[in-house]
Design goal:
The complex is a heterodimer of chains A (385) and B (271). Chain A is mostly helical. Chain A is built from 15 helices and no strands. In chain A, α8 crosses α9. Classes of the chains: A mainly alpha (385), B alpha+beta (271).
């Protein structure tokens, strides 16, 4: 099927070349980081994870959200989603690729990465995260690829593909649960030490991922002859609405526990994020922006008229993506490390090379996504013609 | 910890559900716990190292002396930049050493007092629990060791440590011998050529001077402190009722950092 990715119009090639250029810049910056060490980033002994791990966490959510199209189709036999399951699975593949790359660029000693396999350590959550992410990547590759090639040949896919699809459903939940456990089991990090972390992660995943998928479907509609379908988008928008409501609700639960109990170590991280601490408040405008976008998205998603209108739905989805990205891609990690265990504030902000490496990884993900979507759309066009 | 009545009943209940009984149930559901409970608290010959900091006898100059002795022993570089700082043993004021313990009307002396901090060598260490490669591990004598040649630099242990005791080599430590301004801060780096070198991208921390202990010496900071004030730092075996640490803890009121987290620190402070 790769042949379909090698034929395309000028716009397709220009987009790929643009992504390749960004990947090149990112790679250049990474080689600099490889040479000099992670000191070229904004991280410090107090904020020892930063932008990379935050992107990783956000993208695990996007990857897990593939299940929101897979589950209704395979478990509830919701036929309409048959048209777009492959889009959900291919989005998951691109997202996991980025996750693995973000872990890799964050390692201080990447050449020793195989030590995780050479010295397997079941008591480390990172060991399990490595397993669930890689297996999820393989599951989506096998299922997505086989279903699509069967569709191209006009034959039903094989039985074992369906078995793998069933396995991938609980697996999707597991990747974000295990990722939440990376944080939620650490003594002394009170911002993360909360039983609702995994549930919050899943809620934010199931709104941000499908929101991104809706936006991608709208783009696919524009640039190809394949229409993912109105009903499909409408069902997805309902999923986004419910998940975003849950996401905001879970966040409010955190606020209640912290501020009604008045326990300083629980309150202090929220205060740092939304108001600043010891004169450092660089994140506050971001967090309030996220709040604004979250409210906007909720209004547009809850009011039926704006949810059904594709233009306002696109705005709502973009708002969901921005709000959840700021929440998980900035606030979660920096807020968890600030203040540090001594209750001191060490400012963190990503440096220019750090941002370029991040952009390079995102570009790699979008490159993978574009090629996979090109294949999927070409097959759909072929079959539809 | 052993097995208390409540845990025993729980295990017995679960075992009943699965039709297990007696010793087999204990071995499957709580491996090792029964042996641990049967044994005396201190298995003969096994040490459990701990340190008592007698803060009454400590002053800033003495703490600086301890820090210098440690940093010379372990070639700890000085980057002149707090974000990149490698800390094995360091000074911190009362409020930040024991966050949550301060109040507005605290004794004037204590308010401005600095404390000597280092790795707590916890009996229940979260850093070892999270390490994906066993690069950091607990020895039988309780010391939390760090294999700087296995560490992949994921920094999970730094997130897990509630005491900020772990430092990361953000850059190459050897650049202090190449960069002009850093050369001035580290004129005689490396100060101890017998200590193994480390590379960029690995985590490090206090090891209670495991290599000195192996030679029958006390940790460098303890030696430096006791040269000036006898008993300012007391190092010894908690399993030996006659040891200096046990005697100090028996005679004085002592505190530990964040005991509520259950990591069981082995660094005690007499205030």
């Amino acid at each position: 099927m790769l042949d379909t990715a090698l034929k395309g119009r000028q716009g397709y090639w220009s987009w790929l070349i643009f992504l390749l250029a960004l990947m090149g810049v990112g790679l250049g910056c990474y080689l600099y980081q490889f040479q000099e060490g992670l000191r070229i980033t904004g991280m410090s002994r107090d904020v020892s994870w930063g932008f990379y791990i935050a992107q990783f966490t956000y993208l695990v959510g996007v990857a897990a959200s593939g299940v929101m199209v897979v589950l209704p189709y395979y478990l509830h036999n919701y036929k309409a989603f048959g048209r777009i399951t492959v889009l959900g699975e291919f989005l998951a593949i691109a997202a996991i690729t980025m996750c693995l790359l973000f872990i890799f660029v964050d390692l201080g000693n990447p050449v020793r990465i195989l030590n995780v396999i050479l010295y397997p350590t079941p008591n480390s959550i990172l060991f399990w995260d490595m397993i669930v992410l890689n297996v999820y990547l393989l599951l989506n590759l096998f299922v997505g690829w086989n279903v699509l090639s069967a569709e191209r040949k006009g034959i039903p896919y094989r039985k074992w593909v369906k078995v793998l699809a069933y396995i991938s459903i609980p697996w999707a939940f597991s990747i974000h649960t295990v990722t939440a456990f990376l944080y939620a089991g650490l003594p002394g990090r009170h911002f993360w030490l909360t039983a609702i972390m995994a549930a919050r992660f899943l809620a934010s995943a199931f709104c941000s991922g499908p929101a991104l998928l809706i936006l991608l479907c709208l783009i696919v509609r524009k640039v190809s002859r394949f229409d993912p379908g109105r009903e499909q988008i409408r069902t997805l928008s309902g999923i986004v609405a419910y998940a975003m409501i849950l996401n905001v609700f879970f966040f409010l639960l955190e606020l209640f526990t912290a501020f009604y109990s008045q326990i300083p170590s629980h309150k202090i991280h929220f205060i740092f994020l939304f108001a600043g601490l010891e004169g450092y408040g660089k994140l506050a405008p971001w967090m309030w922006t996220a709040t604004g976008f979250a409210i906007l998205s909720l209004i547009l998603l809850i009011v039926p008229a704006t949810r059904r209108n594709l233009d306002t739905l696109a705005v709502a989805c973009a708002a969901v993506v921005i709000a959840t990205w700021i929440d998980k891609g900035l606030g979660l990690i920096i807020g968890g490390f600030t203040p540090n265990p001594f209750e001191r504030v060490t400012p963190y902000w990503p440096t220019t090379p750090e941002i370029f490496i991040t952009v390079g990884v995102w570009a790699t993900g979008f490159f993978v996504l574009t090629v996979l979507y090109k294949m999927a759309v070409s097959v759909k066009e072929e079959v539809g013609a | 910890m052993g097995v208390n009545r409540r845990d025993f009943l729980k295990i017995a209940g679960i075992a009943g559900l699965f039709g297990l009984s007696g010793r087999a149930a204990m071995d499957i559901l709580a491996p090792g716990e029964l042996e641990a409970a049967e044994k005396p608290v201190a298995p003969p010959g096994v040490k459990r190292w701990a340190m008592v900091v007698d803060s009454r006898k400590m002053d800033e100059a003495l703490m600086d002396k301890c820090i210098e002795a440690c940093h010379r022993e372990h070639n700890v570089p000085n980057y002149g930049n707090p974000k990149e700082e490698i800390k094995w043993v360091w000074k911190e004021d009362y409020h930040h050493s024991f966050p949550g313990q301060q109040h507005a009307f605290i004794e004037e002396d204590l308010k401005h007092k600095e404390f000597l901090l280092m790795c707590n060598h916890c009996s229940n260490p979260p850093c070892c629990r999270v390490c994906p490669t066993q690069a950091t591990f607990q020895r039988e004598d309780g010391i939390i060791m760090m294999d700087m040649h296995r560490c992949i630099g994921c920094r999970f242990c730094m997130a897990a440590c509630p005491f900020g005791a772990r430092s990361f080599n953000w850059g190459d430590p050897w650049r202090v011998t190449r960069v002009e301004e850093l050369k001035k801060l580290n004129p005689d780096f490396p100060t101890n050529r017998t200590y193994p070198t480390r590379s960029k991208g690995v985590v490090e921390k206090c090891t209670f001077c495991a290599s000195r202990l192996a030679r029958g010496e006390v940790p460098a900071c303890v030696e430096a402190a006791n040269e000036v004030t006898e008993g300012a730092l007391i190092f010894g075996d908690l399993n030996d009722p006659e040891s200096g640490v046990r005697e100090a803890l028996r005679k004085h009121y002592s505190i530990r950092r964040k005991p509520e987290l259950g990591t069981e620190p082995n660094l005690y402070f007499i205030v």
